[in-house]
Amino acid sequence: xxxxxxxxxxxxxxxxxxxxxxxxxxxxxxxxxxxxxxxxxxxxxxxxxxxxxxxxxxxxxxxxxxxxxxxxxxxxxxxxxxxxxxxxxxxxxxxxxxxxxxxxxxxxxxxxxxxxxxxxxxxxxxxxxxxxxxxxxxxxxxxxxxxxxxxxxxxxxxxxxxxxxxxxxxxxxxxxxxxxxxxxxxxxxxxxxxxxxxxxxxxxxxxxxxxxxxxxxxxxxxxxxxxxxxxxxxxxxxxxxxxxxxxxxxxxxxxxxxxxxxxxxxxxxxxxxxxxxxxxxxxxxxxxxxxxxxxxxxxxxxxxxxxxxxxxxxxxxxxxxxxxxxxxxxxxxxxxxxxxxxxxxxxxxxxxxxxxxxxxxxxxxxxxxxxxxxxxxxxxxxxxxxxxxxxxxxxxxxxxxxxxxxxxxxxxxxxxxxxxxxxxxxxxxxxxxxxxxxxxxxxxxxxxxxxxxxxxxxxxxxxxxxxxxxxxxxxxxxxxxxxxxxxxxxxxxxxxxxxxxxxxxxxxxxxxxxxxxxxxxxxxxxxxxxxxxxxxxxxxxxxxxxxxxxxxxxxxxxxxxxxxxxxxxxxxxxxxxxxxxxxxxxxxxxxxxxxxxxxxxxxxxxxxxxxxxxxxxxxxxxxxxxxxxxxxxxxxxxxxxxxxxxxxxxxxxxxxxxxxxxxxxxxxxxxxxxx
Length: 675
Hints:
- This protein is of the alpha+beta class.
- The chain has a 4-stranded antiparallel sheet. It has a 4-stranded antiparallel sheet with strand order 14-12-16-17, sandwiched between helices. Strands 3-6-7 form a 3-stranded antiparallel sheet.
- Strand 4 (375-378) and strand 5 (381-384) form a beta hairpin.
- The protein is globular and about 100 Å long.
- The N and C termini lie far apart (105 Å).
């Protein structure tokens, strides 16, 4: 009886639903339109899609509603605390604060949970009676959606309530809630930029896929590909529960006269000042890093200082609600906060912490992987692949990686510019050490191939490297069929479906890949053809019936090419000189010192220059045959003379290619020099 009269006061409860119940009704309607109505009316031409989470069906909209309506409810239900007269009125009622808070929390819980579970029930009914939906899912996914939405929404509601106890203005309360949600992501990305800029070997980009899960705001973009997992729900549920006693404690200590103040607790003010200041420190440093010329560290430091000053001033203006903030304590406080910000920025990148110069001892290394994490799609869900097969404990491989790593550390390479990377450094080295103590040590570098050729050659000629770099492990799995397409003509393709031929082809392909020399791996010539290997897929999604893996067939793959000839398949991929009417050359001069550019076959360049005096044409079959046997891949250069070439086919598509001046035969040079 006491609980019903005090903790669940019917008068206030009814008043809350009369005054703010429209939010719950609107929440219910939006959920009904975004889930049960959507899955019942969605049509995909009779093709169904297997999904493992209801968030794969319009999930972005669900998360949007979960992070907006509960926030609005938290602001409106506790609006009385932020205004002078209503605050005096409600706190003058014959109710203790814990009673008042309880009835308002119960009102919010009802306005959130009732719409969610009504939607869940209606979705279950639609799933049970509708036998031709576009989406196929289990009944357990319906309850999982209801549980997930409940936890997300209650977290947002309780976060808004807890923040409202520390903030005295409703608008600032809402802004602070979303700032708290975005702060971990902003801090992560911008601080990562700082670490990459000043910490040699920092593995930037390694955690980008996880960063989207740090904030419910960004979950709108990732919820389809990265569905809800149990650990995520446990964290949000624990935080929502933690905010409940926190709200009671803060409400008991909150002063009535703090209504309309920006910050209601003295203890929160320095936290607010530093949080806003340090955020702008990071943003200022990142902005000037982006716009500054490469290697201009001074501009980055200027950005940090400017961001800190602006952040502190803005924080003081918000707290005091005036721009007249000057007093004798302003500069000492600014210096103190600035010193703390500087320490946070400096300590992780200081030389004395040994991060940049650390190379593990060979006896401490259990195994090594080269390259970052890999992901695969299953039923529309992006899942991280098990990386155990990509690690190697071969002593020769371990020693080769350690030797390369040690030389990188001993070299005088500059810190990598995160905004303007040195593209002359054409080798990326991404090392993951699995150590004997159970930890994983990661480093990432961009290095010039010419300076590290000996170490790279020793590493890249090992089979342990080629197995991972060229995905030869897939060649040990069952393959349904193989499609092979010519590099220079998409019309030239063959299909291998015989199990015996598939088995022979993939074995020979694997041997050719593993026998590549270092020079063959870095060959500037285009591949002869591409092989597409089709596998059965575990996915039940008809839009993803098979897994496909592409492999190059390089001119140096003697076993594969010999097998194609033996099985009379080679000629079906070959374009002969008899099929080409003529060849046209257009000279292109590249001269951009200090500004390297990519040069490759450009159809628009040669087609736009065919009417000019630079054009040279020939019908010489011997010369056309030589051209068909050599196609250079694109390359990055500052100064070069290249020839854009068009082979005009008698029937079908024309062929475009590019050769450097040194690639030309004597006969080609002769005809070009005459012109």
